Amino acid sequence: MAHAIETSAEIYLAPVRPRSKRIGVVREWVKVSQFLAWPIVFIVFNIFFKIDIRGRHNLEQLENPTLFISNHIAFYDSFLFRLIIGSYGHLLPLCFMAVRNFKSKTLNTLKAVGIIDLIYSLFGAFTIVPGQGIEAGISGARNIIRDGGNVVIYPEGEMITDGVVGPFKRGAAVLARQTGVTVLPLSFRKGSRMLIRRKIDINIGEPIVVDSRISDIDLTARFRDVVVRLMEE
Is the pTM of this model over 0.90? Predict the structure, then answer.
């Protein structure tokens, strides 16, 4: 079995790698843990936040695999994805592209005591090492997509907390062009605080079918423009 993939230079067939028994077990574990996390995440986040999710109808026709892209406003964004998916259990598990070294002292402290590793194992994160090039950075995500899995990427590559969308890196665009995967854009925006509850606006955009003839640079700009528009709506 193979997926047809187009590039600006050629059309070729990328084989779908047979899923090993170990990968299958890990994926089922992550799927179960993400499914069971829904009520916990719902209760905790609705205590501390007032969450408004728009555009959820855009999830209805999604099929696996899908590449989710969004801006990155806080360390808890990945937990919010469980609220976004809601009852659309067929989209689980989500595999989050993540890093192990942080600018935040708090996150580095959590890593030192094992909390980050625990969260990553429970919620399906796979790690990359920045600075090793695009191909090295997206190889894990590409394998997940070719196995039929769903991937979440924050194209900014870091948390941007000042209310703007930062520059997007090219990895998501290269991945989308190489695999032909459907891309679902969404945005996070912090609102005003009322007592202990801060408002978070989440806007889910329409799925994007990538035209392989567009360049990585132009596609990256398009992805960012869509996320900016969603955040400003």
Answer: no
